[in-house]
From TrEMBL:
<dbReference type="GO" id="GO:0008270">
    <property type="term" value="F:zinc ion binding"/>
</dbReference>
<feature type="binding site">
    <location>
        <position position="170"/>
    </location>
    <ligand>
        <name>Zn(2+)</name>
    </ligand>
</feature>
<feature type="binding site">
    <location>
        <begin position="217"/>
        <end position="218"/>
    </location>
    <ligand>
        <name>NAD(+)</name>
    </ligand>
</feature>
<keyword id="KW-0808">Transferase</keyword>
<feature type="binding site">
    <location>
        <begin position="241"/>
        <end position="243"/>
    </location>
    <ligand>
        <name>NAD(+)</name>
    </ligand>
</feature>
<dbReference type="GO" id="GO:0070403">
    <property type="term" value="F:NAD+ binding"/>
</dbReference>
<feature type="binding site">
    <location>
        <begin position="118"/>
        <end position="121"/>
    </location>
    <ligand>
        <name>NAD(+)</name>
    </ligand>
</feature>
<feature type="binding site">
    <location>
        <position position="146"/>
    </location>
    <ligand>
        <name>Zn(2+)</name>
    </ligand>
</feature>
<feature type="binding site">
    <location>
        <begin position="46"/>
        <end position="48"/>
    </location>
    <ligand>
        <name>NAD(+)</name>
    </ligand>
</feature>
<feature type="binding site">
    <location>
        <position position="180"/>
    </location>
    <ligand>
        <name>Zn(2+)</name>
    </ligand>
</feature>
<comment type="similarity">
    <text>Belongs to the sirtuin family. Class I subfamily.</text>
</comment>
<feature type="active site" description="Proton acceptor">
    <location>
        <position position="138"/>
    </location>
</feature>
<keyword id="KW-0479">Metal-binding</keyword>
<dbReference type="GO" id="GO:0017136">
    <property type="term" value="F:histone deacetylase activity, NAD-dependent"/>
</dbReference>
<keyword id="KW-0520">NAD</keyword>
<feature type="binding site">
    <location>
        <begin position="36"/>
        <end position="40"/>
    </location>
    <ligand>
        <name>NAD(+)</name>
    </ligand>
</feature>
<dbReference type="GO" id="GO:0005634">
    <property type="term" value="C:nucleus"/>
</dbReference>
């Protein structure tokens, strides 16, 4: 769309107009969609940023191709690279960013309908966003199970394995008493695996939202990448990312805020009149 195309909902395609829309109380059901880019400033590399992303730095794991580390077939034969990475990414070592705190602020204001995250670092939860507001579309490290019998595996033994960069094996027995001994993996979604049921149960929510905020994702993994398209035409969609992605910008009320997440989130908070409150909330996180 060119700059002369009239908007349907916002006064203009600017951050100021989004701030006004929120301040006027017209955003009461906000759906936020996040990816690895909101956590890079916390010190967790994303997948695809050139030079710094995990995919650019996986030579040391000697993978045949970068995505192999999150692929079930490869994991079955060679699970160690995953466990080396898992130790580096495991939750508890990183502090939420001001972008994570902003999602929590939306919730405290009572206007966060749902957060869909692709991240497995649990930083949104650590920033205070309650469990029932979060859809972990690609799973998390919260639980783990056997890739063969699907049986669960104790958390303490998983932590031990992660710390030792060793590979845990299933403790369950078959009905005939044979040990299963299958490989155990955290319930994060690998390529080719089904997303959690909660994702499918909630994926129509963007169509009931009055504002969509997409942050820090290349929107290159389906079906997550389809979520913004479920919003109604005329529902404002804000993209906060270092690059334009996923066709955002193609609708009358799309607002592109290109740049680093934390800086752009501060601008959005400022436009809402919340910057001091946000900084104070983040300082307590
Ligand atoms: P991605 O494909 O690596 O894309 C990240 C996007 O964020 C890119 O468009 C970057 O340009 C952009 N970006 C990076 N840093 C910033 C920044 N500071 N400010 C603004 N934009 C930035 O990652 P996606 O999340 O889109 O891909 C989906 C995968 C990545 C999911 O399955 C995740 O599980 C997986 N992942 C998660 C984590 C984590 O939990 N923190 C880390 C690495 C990968």
């Amino acid at each position: 769309i060119d700059e002369n195309t009239p908007t349907q909902t916002l006064d203009s395609r600017t951050v100021e107009a989004v701030g006004k829309y929120i301040k006027d109380g017209r955003a009461k059901r906000i759906v936020v969609m996040t990816g690895a880019g909101i956590s890079t400033s916390a010190g967790i590399p994303d997948f695809r940023s050139p030079g710094t992303g995990l995919y650019a730095n996986l030579q040391r794991l000697k993978l045949p191709y970068a995505e192999a580390v999150f692929t079930l077939d490869y994991f079955r034969n060679n699970p160690l690279p995953f466990y080396i990475l898992a130790q580096e990414l495991y939750p508890g070592q990183f502090r939420p960013t001001i972008t994570h705190a902003f999602i929590n602020l939306l919730n405290e204001k009572g206007i966060l309908l749902k957060l869909f995250t692709q991240n497995i670092d649990c930083l949104e939860r650590e920033a205070g966003v309650p469990d029932d507001k979060i859809i972990e579309a690609h799973g998390s490290f919260a639980n783990q199970s056997c890739i063969d019998c699907k049986g669960s595996f104790p958390k303490d033994l998983m932590l031990k394995a992660i710390n030792e960069k060793s590979v845990p094996h299933c403790l369950h027995k078959s009905p005939s008493g044979e040990p299963c001994d299958g490989l155990v993996k955290p319930n994060i979604v690998f390529f080719g695996e089904q997303l959690p049921g909660a994702f499918f149960d909630n994926r129509d929510l963007p169509s009931t939202a009055d504002l969509i905020i997409v942050m820090g994702t290349s929107l290159s993994v389906a079906p997550f990448s389809q979520l913004p398209s479920f919003a109604h035409d005329g529902t404002p969609r804000v993209l906060i990312n270092s690059e334009a992605v996923g066709g955002l910008g193609s609708r009358t009320d799309d607002v592109l805020m290109l740049g680093d997440c934390d800086g752009q989130v501060r601008k959005l908070a400022e436009a809402c009149g919340w910057l001091e409150e946000l900084e104070a909330m983040w300082a307590m996180t």
